UniProtKB/TrEMBL annotation:
Binds 2 [4Fe-4S] clusters per monomer. Pathway: tRNA modification; tRNA-queuosine biosynthesis. [4Fe-4S] cluster 1 binds at C195, C198, C201, C255. TRNA binds at K230. Its EC number is 1.17.99.6. It comes from Fulvimonas soli. This is Epoxyqueuosine reductase. The lineage of its organism: Bacteria, Pseudomonadati, Pseudomonadota, Gammaproteobacteria, Lysobacterales. Its main location: cytoplasm. Residues 183-215 form the 4Fe-4S ferredoxin-type domain. It comes from the Bacteria.
Amino acid sequence: MTIAAPDYAALARDIKRWARELGFAEAGISGVDLGEDERHLERWLGDGLHGEMAYMARHGRKRSRPAELEPGTRRVISVRMDYVPPGTRNAWEVLGDAEAGYVARYALGRDYHKLMRHRLQKLAERIRAAVGEFGFRAYVDSAPVLEKALARNAGLGWIGKHTVLINRRAGSYFFLGELYTDLPLPVDEPATAHCGSCRRCLDVCPTRAIVAPYRLDARRCISYLTIELKGSIPEELRAPIGNRIFGCDDCQLVCPWNKFAQEAAEPDFAPRHRLDGAKLVELFGWSEEEFLRRTEGMAIRRAGYEGWLRNIAVALGNAPRSDAVRAALRARSGHPSAVVREHVAWALARQGG
């Protein structure tokens, strides 16, 4: 008896429907050829623009060759999930309040990694129920994956001049995840670019980290400086950081396509502990125990407590001069961490204290 092969075109349509039912905003399917993106990545790494992110080069070409990362991979199902929930305090308002701390909008609520990976697993289970056993692996920033290039090839958006993925109908405020699979599904049309002559993202960057269209010097990027960098922030970049204490959204905030940004449907992404605009002095007063308790299950944990204090010290140095700010800084002037003490001293000097 011959068993009929699955109708892969119908299965692809079902997968996209199931993805939406599981809470993803959209899904698309791509092949595994990333030759030009591999060359772009190797040039970027060769120029040292990744800074201290050694993991970007650690896995060789597995990042740009899905079948080497997960043998047997023939297709990649890419999904996206919107992350800015309704009611979040206006980003420009927070950036304009020098006494408040700005946290990148993606990091205000629950960490998305486990949530999305769990739902990708559920998507795989639905596929298995339809076709039987098949090879797959789910990724959400959990392995060397060129997620933006794969999502572009799956039709979910194009990579903008700021190197962030942009969707014509939804802007850029969304997370990405992938399901590597050995199923020979039909692939979607890659998205075409629509940045045109616009250069708002290049011009707005406080630290001039976007050194050319589609080329980011991570060593100058505020997201890198406040999250990935574990030592001292270069002194010439501290003032431009302003009140950004975890990440930065400026290049997305000015992007014209974000007038189409969609609000998140996931309640777990709602801001916790008023972090969409809490005062710097209050945040600087958190003990390590408070920091760990209040950031449990959140992306902010990635900075670590020492990095958290370092970042807020810089923001306090950029804040309007006040007795309250100087008192908060002096209270940390003897902190056990040399990195924290250095940035507190810099901030006190800026405060005239």
